[in-house]
# Entry
Amino acid sequence: MEAMVRELRKIIPFKDTTVPGDVILVAVERNRAVFYALVTDISRDEFRRDEWWRVTMQVLGVPPQEVVWTLREPQFTGQETFTMEGDGRFVQAVDFSVKRVPPGPGKSVRPRPALKRVK
# Structure
């Protein structure tokens, strides 16, 4: 799971925090599945003694599906991985304000001018 998270961190800009309205990336170790979800609510789980939170999200698939996971803050902010039913998971909000260029083969591509001057 840790190797998978390292690879994701190389290509996706993540946020340090997660709040309702954020789009999160969810990675599942078993079949190396990765999907996005929209966080719709984060509320304290009052039935637990420690700091656990009910994270409600809409899985961005067809059809959208509501899911509620009970997680600790380090788990839903990407600070630590966790398991559900013995399967490794990673969750972190994506920072869409950062423009990240994916690593290329090393060649710089010179953009062609959009207009051509004709005499």
In short: The beta strands are 23-28, 33-44, 53-59, 65-71, 82-84, 87-93. The CA atoms of residues 30 and 87 lie 6 Å apart. The first strand starts at residue 23 and ends at 28. DSSP finds two helices and six strands in the chain.
